[in-house]
Amino acid sequence: MENYIIEMLNIRKEFPGIVANDDITLQLKKGEIHALLGENGAGKSTLMSVLFGLYQPEKGEIRKNGVKVDINNPNDANALGIGMVHQHFKLVEIFTVLENIILGVEPNKYGFLQEKDARQKVIDLSEQYGLQVDPDALIEKISVGMQQRVEILKMLYRENEILIFDEPTAVLTPQEIEELMDIMRGFAKEGKSILFITHKLNEIMAVADRCTVLQKGKYKGTVEIKNTTKKKLSKMMVGRDVNFTIEKEKAKPKDVVLSVRNISVKSKVSDLHSVKNVSFDVRAGEVVCLAGIEGNGQSEVVYIITGLEKPSSGEIFLNGEDITKASIRDRSKKGISHIPEDRHKYGLVLDYSLEKNMVLQRYWQPEFSKKGFLRFDNIRSYAERLIKKYDVRSGEGPTTPARAMSGGNQQKAIIARELEKTCDLLVSVQPTRGLDVGAIEFIHEQIVLARDDGRAVLLMSLELDEVMNLADRILVMYEGEIVGELDPKKVSVEELGLYMAGSKRNTKKEVAHA
């Protein structure tokens, strides 16, 4: 008989209008990396939240080392050696790295905080596991990749032996993903047991020992990774074959829609510029991708174009009109759609219903408003149409609070809203972040359709496969400058990586504009 460190047996978890986990059994061996795979809304994060004590199941039981345990809250989980890195980090932004790591388990003597000992322990752990951090840095000032290191160090500080990673690579660069994979392998060699939620089949094949697949809240099976393929896993997950390559015709660019001229942006953390004199055009009927390692100015360029920030110098033109000083609403009205990088901060009002989020940038239009009053029937029928078309899964349909939806379905809601809006320019940042392979296939098709419909598409993605597949032109940014303009049909992933790392650049344009 197999010895399991954790067993979740016949777990059932319900929410209003939906059974998130329907009789699911998951068994984790000591020292293994066990992947949990499923479509958006399949119940993966819910199942892990049950294990971590955030939710209480209606049925089923949890065993550790064969003994039934009660996990009523995260403190119970931590006492049992269970730690969790959440998909959306649970960090206090105005606290330092050290303060976040020790929060809730502060070492004290006679009621006084023993910060010196805690600091040394954090430094020792960061060196031991290759997770270098600055203990005194504020969370709001460090990168997303660094914030994830803080979450991992929180688990290590508490000496957890069962580590749950919920979509850990969704917000990381390719280099950071490789580092995380190595860290996870190191944990497993030490005897720690890892539960790893992801949509990325390449990562599962690279790092996992076994994989459990969920589909619409039900258990589909557990497989040994050495005995399976990406194609088999994707079919188990979505119930059909998935096309991993994007089928599209050659682009037929027309007039310039977006013109960025000599844009510079001052850095928030130094006297230098995070964007330096950047200029480029995007034409109707083409997908132009801003590629680069995170932190090289791509985000700032997107913020300038969409109105979230103002440039220190330079100009932005949309269809020949200067919009440099235009408000976000004016830019939206003039024809810019924006799928933002941070869906919680810029994409949704989390406490609004799904239907209200679907019309956030259109509610004043005659279709949805009359004499200053909202036309709720029209809003609901519009939302229902988008929910069906984009397969946005929610427990209570259009009335579901956005906060109650899975991360992937929140993303699909934003994409539905932005693609259905009449626009000339689609600014799409990490559009498939946190989505399953079936949803990625569909979203890629929609972006290509937008291009073929004559829209200009500016894509920013850290997924090199997505860049190579979707882009008609690639603009590589390094240290705030465009260092290369490349044709994805003529450049290899390896060469693209050299440009992204700053090892190579071209000063003349290598792609002829149509």
Automatic annotation (TrEMBL):
The keyword ATP-binding applies. It is found in: Cell membrane. It is a peripheral membrane protein. InterPro entries: AAA+_ATPase (IPR003593), ABC_carbohydrate_import_ATPase (IPR050107), ABC_transporter-like_ATP-bd (IPR003439), ABC_transporter-like_CS (IPR017871), P-loop_NTPase (IPR027417). Its main location: membrane. It holds the Pfam family ABC_tran. The keyword Translocase applies. Gene3D superfamilies: P-loop containing nucleotide triphosphate hydrolases. It comes from the Bacteria. GO terms for molecular function: ATP binding; ATP hydrolysis activity. Keywords: ATP-binding, Cell membrane, Membrane, Nucleotide-binding, Repeat, Translocase, Transport. One of its GO terms (cellular component) is plasma membrane. Residues 6-241, 258-504 form the ABC transporter domain. PANTHER family: CARBOHYDRATE TRANSPORT ATP-BINDING PROTEIN MG119-RELATED, GUANOSINE IMPORT ATP-BINDING PROTEIN NUPO. This is Heme ABC transporter ATP-binding protein.
